[in-house]
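debug: dumping io for the single-chain case to check the tokenizer round-trip. Nothing else runs in this session.
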Amino acid sequence: MKIPNLLSLILLVPAMANAQQTWSYSQCVDYARANNISLKQARLSAENSQLSLEAARAQWQPTLSFSTTQGYTNTPWAERGHKNSYGSNYGLNAGWTVWNGGERQATIEQRSVQAQASEVSALGLETDLEHSILQVYVNLLYSREAIEINREAADLSKAQEERARQLMDAGRLSIVDYAQIAEQAEQDRYMIVSAEGTYATQCTELKRLLELGIDENIQPQSVDWTREEVLAPLWSLDESYRLALLNDNELKAAQLQSEAARLEEKVAKSSGLPQLSLNAGVGTTYYAPGGAFGTQLKRGFNENIGLTLSIPILDQKKTKVAVAQARVAASDADLTRESRQTSLGRDIEALYTDVRSAQSRYEAGEKQIEAATLSNDLVNEQFALGLVNTVELLTAHNALTAAKRELTQAKYMAMLGKKRIEIYRNNSTTL
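debug: decoded output
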């Protein structure tokens, strides 16, 4: 027997956390889909909606019940006859609602739509979870690269500090200038510690999304994006928005909730209509002291069948209020749907703006880092010859480090925005 994919994933992925330290983006997403608690709760809610639908469909079935009453009577001051008596009756009763104003069918339709909305909401939560994982995962990649940039800067400043000490010992550099260079070296070493702290924080956030324990060790798998990928043109904005409207599960859920609210109004109206029910039963009685048990049961056997018509006249405005509340719920669901449409357009447009800005920064950063590298190399040579002062040396060093950070940040911002747009377009993405 083939195990369903989700069940197989639930059974296999818990061991994955301990078996490996390096996680790819797709592994993180798959693990979160199987283990995230909020997502599990959403799936349980969808399952509960299906049970409610099953209960609504069962309203078309008749009811059947057996009842019996056993009684003992004591009449201590009776003038004649037995002072104590025992009586019992037995009945088998069936009932079926012939007509209840269309409430059953309307309830089935309403709960069917509600079940669909719950399932789609769970899928929407999966998409939201992927957005969150993508954000944290890309931030982790950026933080790790930022650590390397800071280490390179620290190595360079350390070499400059050692060279400055030699110049100071030779009498060619003042102690004040040396102190400035040493201070810069300390700052660069501190930046490594700060970047490592940021990286650890992002790791903790990723483990939270994946519901991993505090003792788990997680490292993102490296992703090497080329210059062509970073600067590749975006899709049409209108096309992305159109696809987002078609594929967005949160918007689908809002539309279904609006439909369910209108069906709830239909259910509410039915409670003010006449209802017709069919009832039938068989029964018998026994009384003691009296004749033989079997004889009494036979003689007391009876059958009955009947129709009951119920016409509501006054119900303390329950139907009127229920209809009004259903209309309010429908209007609220419509507003939620409109709000989601607006927020989708706003979010996608903002992403396009951010990506294009990051791409421009990346192109400018390439030129900036080329110029900063050349300038830094020249200033270091001139400083060794005593041709430039400490301020110029530190300025060139910081400019190169800032250019590297700017280029790296622009690259990851551009790719993060692109991948988020892909999620809006397709409900998923890969790195």
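debug: round-trip ok. The longest strand covers residues 84-99.
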